[in-house]
Amino acid sequence: MSDGRDGVPETASDEPESSAPGASPDGGHAAATPSTHTVRLELVDEPGQLLAALHPIADNGGNLLSIYHERGNKTPRGRIPVEVDFEATAERFEGIVDALRSEGVNVMQAGTERYAEEVTILLFGHLIDTDLSDTLSRIEACESASVADVSLAAPQGTEEVSSARLRLEARAGETDAAIAAVRDLAADKELRVVEPLTGVDA
């Protein structure tokens, strides 16, 4: 039976079929575009720590661009801040941050996850006897805040009551949660908290 075109079999149209949103012409999905991300890490000053921190980035699809190793500028806990720039898709970036934290690397800042609020508090008590380093570590473990600066005063010696001024950087809207975490920690160590201080030049 003729198809009305001199017996030539009917063929598919040369017009491409419409694709689903986000689909590539070959039927696959278009790959997400990588963008540049920065993570700020806090590393122990020991051989191999930097290399160990870079593995989760490379192993999870990050393309390393640059590393800024601030060896002469240690954090309040005596550790070394390191900034790493790399390319990754948004999805892979989240996986990289999770992988770093699961490996025990302290991620002080990740991409746009910047600490937007700042508060200064005072701690009084036996700060040395109760392990000041542990106190700072436990504050850092609270994901709402990071210890930006600490100033210790022990005029009567380390075995007597001392004071510390802590400048905390908190995520936007999470200052109250950060202060609550410090209160709980202070109660656990029988320390006294004076907070918050405003208008203080840290």
UniProtKB/TrEMBL annotation:
Stretches for region Disordered: 1-34
Domain of life: Archaea
InterPro entries for this protein: ACT-like_dom_sf, ACT_ThrD-II-like
Protein name (Swiss-Prot/TrEMBL): Amino acid-binding ACT domain protein
Organism: Halorubrum tebenquichense DSM 14210
